[in-house]
Design a protein that fits this description.
With 170 residues, the chain is an alpha+beta fold. Helix content is 29%, strand content 34%. A 5-stranded mixed β-sheet has the order 5-8-10-11-12, with helices on both faces. Strands 7-6-9 form a 3-stranded mixed β-sheet, with helices on one face.
Length: 170
């Protein structure tokens, strides 16, 4: 729905989309009849576009390394790529490119529930796509959300080759 906000000095019309906000509980049950993935940011559904082929290859490479290390060292963890969300606020949930989840937590999840973890991940990894919006989202917004939700470590992998590790102060 568009809402008219009135004229501005240069006499152009300004309109804005009026967005319907939803709760975290509604998000867990949300279905739009497509295979689209959404994150929930302060009650707003945010469509997550498909990854580029390079982006997808980087995710697979890192996840495969994590799985190999977990196997070699007999670590009780589950490594998931882009299909498990993590609750980051009252009405917020993100879908990291890679989630490393405690095995006990993973096995305790009901098999028929939406795959959104409500306890801190062991590690969240985001692979940054080019673009101002993606950089702000991954380097600023998600850092704060992940730290506030208790995720101890957050890795940022830049598709152009840079790599950062963010550790929570708690």
């Amino acid at each position: 729905m568009m809402q008219y906000l009135g004229a501005v000095e240069d006499e152009t019309m300004v309109t804005t989309d009026k967005k319907k906000l939803i709760t975290f509980e509604q998000y867990l049950k949300y279905e739009d009849g497509t295979n689209s993935r959404y994150e929930l940011v302060d009650g707003e559904l945010v469509l997550m576009p498909p990854a580029s082929f390079l982006h997808s290859d980087i995710i697979d490479f890192i996840a495969d390394l994590f799985r190999a290390i977990a196997f070699e060292h007999k670590l009780d963890v589950k490594v998931k790529t882009g299909d498990v969300g993590v609750r980051t606020g009252i009405n917020s949930s993100r879908i990291p490119e890679i989630s490393v989840i405690d095995g006990i937590v993973w096995r305790s999840m009901p098999r028929d529930a939406s795959a959104v973890i409500e306890v801190p991940l062991l590690l969240a990894v985001e692979v940054v796509s080019p673009g101002t919006e993606q950089i702000e989202r991954d380097y600023i917004n998600k850092v704060t959300e992940y730290q506030n939700s208790g995720i101890a470590e957050y890795w940022i992998v830049d598709g152009c080759g840079s790599f950062e590790v963010m550790k929570s102060n708690g």
